[in-house]
Design brief:
single chain, about 240 residues, mainly beta, Jelly Rolls, 2 domains, six-stranded antiparallel beta sheet, five-stranded antiparallel beta sheet, 21 strands, about 5% helix, disordered N terminus
């Protein structure tokens, strides 16, 4: 490699600022000392663009390190360069550190869907012939395990059965499937959801009712009452696949 000695010229206000390809930066005072340097760097390309450097900005190699003009490189990268002679500081980009962004908020946990009768079992319900029955029940020939069935009997007359559940305002949505038990009467029965004394939803089940998915908003409800009204000669109500979240 051909070497020659040449006085290094100042890049900014008589000061040489170097960017090393090893990503280490150094500042050398211009005291008139001589640097052994070779000028074998032919081109500098930034993001695909070749820089047109002046003679004073010419890169050189000294002591196994390659020195590049900080102003030309920084401005090619869209960053302003400033020199503070009072403190001997070169500023690239903003002189003020970028503010630390606040941490991203932690998202609330996703609601967990649970089996309704396990999560909030009834703490109070009607008793006697109109009590609720848990069993596998068919609707349109398809079995629904652990469904809740209200049996309507023409000898009972009109019947109302109900269950109370303590939701304590912790849930938002009830889902399930309602329908008519195979082989039961065709008269209309109703299924109502009552939250803290206010009716949230009422569904009617007749002989023509096919298994129907339902969704009930129970947001903020503390005590949920599920009420089954079965007049004489009415369909047996089936409430299956009950879930809550």
């Amino acid at each position: 490699m051909f070497k020659r000695k040449e006085r290094a010229k100042g890049f900014i206000a008589g000061v040489i600022v170097a960017i090393l390809l090893s990503s280490t930066a150094a500042v050398f005072a211009n005291t008139g000392s001589m640097l052994a340097a070779s000028f074998d760097v032919n081109h500098v390309v930034v993001n695909g663009n070749r820089l047109n450097l002046s003679e004073e900005e010419r890169p050189f190699i000294s002591g196994g390190r390659t020195f590049l003009p900080v102003r030309a490189i920084s401005e090619a990268l869209g960053q302003p360069v400033d020199w503070d002679g009072a403190t001997g500081t070169v500023y690239i980009g903003s002189a003020t550190p970028a503010p630390t962004p606040p941490p991203a908020p932690t998202p609330p946990p996703a609601p967990v869907t649970q089996a309704f009768w396990d999560a909030v079992p009834s703490f109070e319900h009607t008793r006697g012939n109109d009590s609720l029955v848990f069993r596998t029940t068919n609707m349109l020939g398809n079995p629904y395990p652990t469904a809740v069935v209200i049996n309507s009997n023409s000898d009972w007359g009109d019947r109302t059965a109900w269950t109370h559940h303590n939701l304590d305002g912790q849930f938002t949505t009830f889902t399930g499937i309602i329908g008519r038990a195979d082989g039961s009467a065709a008269g209309a029965s109703t299924l109502s959801f009552i939250g803290d004394g206010a009716t949230l939803a009422t569904f009617t089940i007749t002989g023509d009712t096919t298994p129907t998915p339902i969704t009930v908003d129970v947001s903020g409800v503390r005590i949920l009452r599920i009420q089954y009204d079965s007049p004489r000669h009415s369909a047996n109500i089936v409430l299956a696949e009950s879930m809550i979240r």
